[in-house]
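Subject: design request, 261 residues
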């Protein structure tokens, strides 16, 4: 059945009165996305795994912008926690318009040196977490809502030591494309952002050499900032700007590792 498109001018050009869930939002890219959405008028659920004080600081920053926010502790790799995250969102805000699956982990090792424990941790957070939260959220996402999944430029331009991480993010990208088809009849858009080398705790965990590699790889000779990625997320999330985009993967990478086509 063909879904009638809403006139573009009828769609919002901001996120006023929208409800957004951002996983892994206590720091880095997730924090920047949560604050960006709030600056556009959204009420935000700030998910965190363990750093309560950092999450509460993000909530305070959102309140200072005049938006509502709550912090919800949940380990997205735990099925029950993921469901509770959605239930607490609905109990407080009554609906969901935007879901950002940002929570992730990077552990870089050559594949022959990757332990089973490390492999399972990467897949549990990056893949299982994306699935568990999305599955619980989908029945409640409003028409013209959106799901944004975070991937990585390594799926297009890998380098030594990222095989398992790339495996996890490749799964996220495939899931995004399939889900875009599945949810199109409800006018729900599903897209991916693939950050390049971004100045975050995840990147810094790889050491100074990885940060230097990122600067050299960028055509602009700098690392990306979390705010760079947040701007890409805002493009997808705002109903008007993202209206005709689904199943896409935006490389927010400063030209590092190639270009999107």
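Subject: RE: design request

Done. Sequence follows.
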């Amino acid at each position: 059945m063909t879904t009638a498109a809403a006139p573009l001018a009828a769609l919002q050009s901001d996120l006023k009165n929208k409800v957004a869930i951002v996983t892994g939002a206590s720091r880095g890219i997730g924090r920047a996305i949560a604050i960006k959405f709030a600056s556009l008028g959204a009420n935000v659920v700030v998910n965190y795994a363990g750093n309560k004080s950092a999450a509460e600081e993000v909530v305070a920053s959102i309140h200072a912008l005049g938006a509502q926010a709550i912090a919800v502790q949940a380990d997205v790799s735990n099925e029950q926690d993921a469901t509770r995250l959605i239930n607490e969102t609905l109990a407080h805000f009554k609906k969901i318009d935007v879901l950002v699956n940002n929570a992730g982990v990077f552990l870089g090792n050559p594949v022959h040196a990757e332990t089973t424990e490390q492999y399972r941790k990467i897949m549990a957070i990056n893949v299982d977490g994306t699935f568990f939260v999305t599955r619980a959220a989908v029945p409640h996402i409003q028409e013209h809502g959106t799901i944004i999944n975070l991937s990585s430029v390594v799926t297009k331009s890998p380098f030594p030591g990222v095989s398992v991480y790339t495996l996890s993010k490749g799964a996220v990208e495939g899931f995004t494309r399939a889900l875009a088809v599945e949810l199109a009849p409800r006018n729900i858009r599903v897209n991916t952002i693939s950050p390049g080398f971004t100045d975050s705790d995840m990147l810094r965990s790889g050491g100074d050499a990885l940060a230097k590699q990122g600067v050299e790889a960028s055509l602009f000779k700098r690392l990306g900032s979390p705010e760079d990625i947040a701007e890409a997320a805002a493009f997808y999330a705002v109903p008007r700007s993202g209206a005709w985009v689904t199943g896409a993967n935006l490389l927010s990478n400063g030209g590092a590792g190639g270009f999107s086509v």
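Helices lie at 28-39, 52-64, 79-93, 116-137, 163-183, 201-204, 208-217, 226-237.
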